[in-house]
Amino acid sequence: MAQLGSVTPSSYLPFNKVVLGTEGICITVCFFPSSLPENKILVEQPPRIMAFNENATLACKYAYNGTGNEFRASLNKGADRAVEVCSVSWNGSFHNHHSNKDFNCLVAVDSHKKEVNFSLWKLNTDQTDIYFCKIEVMFPPPYISNDKSNGTVIHVKEMLCQSPIFPPATPFWALMVTLGFLAFYSVLITAVFVICWWKNKKNRILTSDYMNMTPRHPPGPKNKHYQPYAPTRIHTEYRSWEP
């Protein structure tokens, strides 16, 4: 058994054990390796992503300290990784992108942050599955790829059809007030028209003159000396000198 404070060295295990001999207590302290073994790639990706409006972006971070200068990153669908969704190859400046015809995918590489972003859009519910990021060193030899990661479940929810939005209905009382106003206005206009017509007709009757008419010949034998006459209107003039 090791003494107090002694550490069991292990360059390949993700943690080391520290044993306190005097107390008989074993404490496990995790130490992440400060440097990766050469020619090894580690990939980190989120466990789950919810597609928003049929769109999703999967960020795959990788760690590599080798001498490779030509890489390839791909996104694979399914537990058996049978379907390659899209991929990209780069060597520092040149990027070559490829996408599956059944997917809408765009890949963005950030070599400084060592991160590859896979952007997917117009996803459907049938494409809900687990997706794996794969990073490969293509040149120089030897060929290296990351170990199988836990993957990311991309869940695509079904889009609900939005019901059409109708304008708010006009309140019943407002409709009745409008109809009442129109009816009152129509009656008022009609009454004014009738009154004006009646006054005009009355004025024409009062101001009309009598027409001169010749009387008919009296019945009986004709009188040769009879002369028809026309009544004349007697105009009475006011004379200031008369009493």
What's the Cα radius of gyration? Answer: 54 Å
Helical percentage? 10-25%
Oligomeric state, counting identical vs distinct chains: single chain
Largest sheet: 7 strands, mixed
List the total number of helices.
1
CATH superfamily of the domain at 42-155: Immunoglobulins
Order of helices and strands: EEEEEEEEEEEEEH
N-C termini distance: 164 Å
Instruction: Tally the beta strands.
Output: 13
Kindly state the mean pLDDT as a whole number?
Answer: 76
> What is the molecular shape?
rod-shaped
CATH topology of the domain at 42-155: Immunoglobulin-like
CATH architecture descriptor of the domain at 42-155? Sandwich
Q: Which percent band covers the strand fraction?
A: 25-35%
Task: List unreliable stretches of 5+ residues.
Answer: 1-34
CATH top level of the domain at 42-155 is Mainly Beta
Structural class: alpha+beta
Task: Give a summary of the structure in a few sentences.
With 243 residues, the protein is an alpha+beta fold. The chain is built from one helix and 13 strands. 14% of the residues lie in helices and 32% in strands.
